[in-house]
């Protein structure tokens, strides 16, 4: 018996389904990919980052968004849900629903066992094609570690990392510095 081929879903069909769905899915190349829910540690780290970044951006022309804001990578057609995104200046959205951001300056992904390879690899490949993106940050749930990819003037990406709760993470694109003890506030490591 020949396996049944999955039907190609257009971006328009994806958005119609996604906007009514009870769970989140990313979209790429005609397929939807369901996202797993985030656990306690992930949510603590995300909340800590959003609070600290939000306070820093309070009187600036930037906004921080949590994981319910989709980002579209127009060059590849990927619709993704970054854990955290920051936009500065005028926000650009795909349509009047204002739920699909086109121009993040900073994207932060909190690594999990199931997404780490994708976040480091293919997803970053897609994100790198965003002209607006200046910084991509990966945050570990396993230990106090923050990795940063910062876009240089020549278009290359510079990698750096900080480790340990006494270290400070520099979010260069938004001129924000956060102590890792704040990023990992109330997080218990195994």
Explain what this protein looks like in three dimensions:
This protein is 22% helix and 31% strand. A hairpin with a 4-residue loop joins strand 12 (168-171) and strand 13. The mean pLDDT is 93. The protein is an alpha+beta fold. Strands 3-6-8-9-10-11 form a six-stranded mixed β-sheet. The protein has one domain (38-183): Alpha-Beta Complex (tt1808, chain A). The termini are far apart. The protein is built from five helices and 13 strands.
Name the structural class: alpha+beta
* Number of E strands: 13
- In the CATH hierarchy, the architecture is Alpha-Beta Complex
Q: What's the main sheet like?
A: 6 strands, mixed
Order of helices and strands: HEEHEEEEEEHHEEEEEH
């Amino acid at each position: 018996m020949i396996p049944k081929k999955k039907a190609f879903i257009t971006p328009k069909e994806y958005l119609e389904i996604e906007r009514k769905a009870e769970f989140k899915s990313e979209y790429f190349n005609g397929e939807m990919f369901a996202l797993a829910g985030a656990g306690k540690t992930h949510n603590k780290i995300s909340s800590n980052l959003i609070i600290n970044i939000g306070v820093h951006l309070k009187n600036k022309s930037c906004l921080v968004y949590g994981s319910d804001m989709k980002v579209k990578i127009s060059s590849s057609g990927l619709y993704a849900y970054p854990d955290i995104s920051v936009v500065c200046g005028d926000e650009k959205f795909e349509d009047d629903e204002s739920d699909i951001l086109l121009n993040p300056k900073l994207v932060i992904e909190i690594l999990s066992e199931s997404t780490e390879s994708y976040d480091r690899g293919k997803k970053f490949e897609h994100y790198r094609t965003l002209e607006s993106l200046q910084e991509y940050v990966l945050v570990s749930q396993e230990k106090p570690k923050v990795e940063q990819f910062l876009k240089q003037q020549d278009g290359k990406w510079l990698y750096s990392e900080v480790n340990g709760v006494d270290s400070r993470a520099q979010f260069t694109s938004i001129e924000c510095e956060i102590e890792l003890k704040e990023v990992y506030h109330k997080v218990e490591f195994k």
